[in-house]
Amino acid sequence: MPLLLTKGYKNNFIFNVIYMSQFIKLTSMIINKNLITSVFIKPNKYHIYTLENNINGFMLFGSGGVDSSPEKIVICGEKSPEDYKVISNWINTI
User: Fold this and answer.
1) Helix, coil or strand: residue 9
2) Segments forming the whole domain that contains residue 58
3) Staple 50 to which of 35, 72, 90, 93, CB 3.0 to 4.6 Å?
4) In a domain, 14, yes or no
């Protein structure tokens, strides 16, 4: 985790360690940046795909199948302009 050191001059010389955020804070959720697999940029909309959280499967007489699907988060500029701005700023820093 990257560190940012700042100096303070209260009561002699103090070093404050601030951990840089590994999360994106939106109005209704917090997204872990490490779990994002892809972001599709569309006009006035972002589609964010994260790692699979659910795995479904079945077993029948020694054989079966497993299926998983990524979680999709849609950020729309018209419905949530604050979240759209946060994601836009994050994408521009990459």
Assistant:
1) coil
2) 22-93
3) 35
4) no
What is the rounded CA–CA span in Å between residue 8 and residue 17? 11
Count CB-CB contacts under 10 A for residue 21: 11
Q: What's the Cα-to-Cα distance from 90 to each of 55, 57, 81, 85, rounded to whole Å?
A: 29, 36, 14, 9
Question: 56, 68 in Cβ contact below 8 A?
Answer: yes
Q: CB of 22 within 8 A of CB of 32?
A: yes
Return the pLDDT at 25: 92
> DSSP letters of 18-66?
EEPP-EEE-SS-EEEGGGEEEEEEETTEEEEEE----EEEEEETTEEEE
- The residue with tokens 């479904």 is 56
Q: Which residue has the tokens 């599709």?
A: 40
29-80 per-position pLDDT tens digit: 998 888 888 999 999 999 999 887 677 787 888 888 877 777 899 999 999 9
